[in-house]
Amino acid sequence: MTPAQDVLATVAIATCWGAFALTWLVGALYNATRGPRQRTRSPYGPTVAVGAAILLVVFRVIPDADWQSLVVHALWASLLGLVILLGSTGLTLWARLTLGTMWSSAPMIKQEHELRSDGPYAITRHPIYTGMLGMFLGTSLLAGAGRWVLLFPVSLGLIEVKLHLEERLMTEAFPDDYPSYRRRVPQLVPGSRLLRRHHAADR
Question: Looking at the whole model, is its pTM more than 0.70?
Answer without folding.
Answer: yes
